Every structure is written in C-alpha cells, then in structure tokens.
Amino acid sequence: MNLEQMAVRCPGAQMISLVRKTGWRYIINQRGYVTALEDPDALTLGCLWKLSKEHWAALDRYEGVGEGFYRRVDCEVITLKSGELVQCIAYRAANETPGVPTETYVETVICGARQIGLPMDYLQFLESWRHGPPGT
User: Fold this and answer.
1) Which of 19, 27, 111, 124 could serve as a FRET partner for 42 with CA atoms 20 to 30 Å apart?
2) How many domains does the chain have?
3) What is the 3-state secondary structure (H, E, C) of 53-90?
4) Is the Cβ–Cβ distance between 18 and 116 less than 8 Å?
5) Is this model's pTM higher than 0.70 or not?
6) What is the strand order of the sheet 70-79 is part of?
C-alpha cells in the first residue's frame, strides 16, 4: 500500500479505494513481512489497486510467489466509502508464524498506511507491531 513502492514496482497502477477485509487478522510473520491469518473476529484494512497483467507479473516476482513465500488468494473486500462488496486478489504468506519486522520494513508499511489515509486507530495498531506481536 506504499505509494512510492507501488510506483516503482507497478508504474501506472491506480489505487482505487480503501477497503476492509473481515475475517483476516494482520500479522508480521517470522520472515519479518506482513500477511494475514484467518480469524472470524478480526478486521484488516488496506487498499484496492487496478493492475495490468504486467503489474501482476512484477508483484509476483517481488512477493516471491515462484519461491513459495507468498501466494495469490481470491477474496472479498468492502470499500470504506460506499460499502460495496468487491471480488479481488490478495497475497498471503506461506509462513504464518508471528515475528518481528525490520525497522525499514515497518516504516514502509506505516508510511504507506498514512499515505493512503487509513484511520488513526489502525495506524496505531500497525505501530503496535513495530517490535513483534503486541503484548509480547
């Protein structure tokens, strides 16, 4: 969701909307990267992008799909403004064990969340993962 990162990885991609995904819980995994876990009581926020085939190929490379680090998953999200239900694709990591992000990575995530305009309480939640799972 970091605008500068997406501009480099996927030139011309357009952010469409802020979205929420119910049933997924945000974590940083043991490799130090974001993923989501199934959790019926959770809610994850992010954004929806309009991507070309070339963008998908680039993201697959960056996310390590070929190496098995991440996989594409079909999901439904709800736009924050209109409440519209949208079918989309997200990336989920193979490693779902909580871990600690690098300082650079956590800054990229939080900066991206600010850039796209996620709510302050969600920014605080993301910040709570700076040194690993909250409460540890």
Assistant:
1) 111
2) 1
3) HHHHHHHHHHHCCCCCCEEEEEEEEEECCCCCEEEEEE
4) yes
5) yes
6) 34-50, 14-28, 70-79, 85-93
| DSSP letter string, the chain | --HHHHHHHSTT-EEEEEEEEEEEEEEEBTTS-EEEEEEEEEEEEEEEEE--HHHHHHHHHHHTTTTTSEEEEEEEEEETTT--EEEEEEEEES--SB----HHHHHHHHHHHHHHT--HHHHHHHHTTTTSSTT-
CA distance 115 to 81: 17
Nearest to 24 by CA among 5, 7, 46: 46
What CATH number does residue 14 fall under?
Answer: 3.10.490.10
Question: For residue 59, what are the domain limits?
Answer: 3-124
In this predicted structure, the answer to whether residue 39 has a pLDDT above a threshold of 80 is: yes
In sequence order, the β-bridge partners of residue 20 are 45, 78
Rounded to an integer, the average pLDDT of 72-86 is: 97
Cα-flanking dihedrals φ and ψ of residue 18, to 5°?
-80, 145
